[in-house]
Design brief:
Strand content: under 5%
Structural class: mainly alpha
Radius of gyration: 13 Å
Number of helices: 4
Helix content: 55-70%
Order of helices and strands: HHHH
Distance between the termini: 35 Å
């Protein structure tokens, strides 16, 4: 299995858990109307980084906002990128 995410996290979680997360991300993306590759990877990335239930987590209402709009996959990917970049900046104290 190739790693697109930190290998330490993948190794810590183990292949069965990562494979289950991939399957759940596929299901979540489809049920949310995110049927493109961009939609899947945004969904998987958010679930991997923020938790498997991120689409139901009240801490992240922006995740599901606008999923019924055109280009929801690209909008979600942009919001995810913005959130994660900001989180990294805050973690570094910038």
């Amino acid at each position: 299995m190739g790693y697109a995410y930190p290998p330490e996290k993948c190794e810590f979680l183990g292949n069965p858990i990562v494979e289950t997360l991939i399957s759940r991300a596929e299901d979540q993306a489809q049920s949310s109307g995110l049927n493109s590759s961009v939609g899947f990877f945004a969904t998987f990335g958010l679930m991997f980084a923020l938790g498997a239930d991120v689409f139901r987590d009240p801490m992240y209402p922006w995740v599901t906002h606008g999923l019924d709009r055109p280009q929801a996959d690209r909008r979600l990917a942009e919001r995810a990128k913005t959130y994660l970049v900001d989180a990294l900046r805050q973690a570094k104290g910038a």
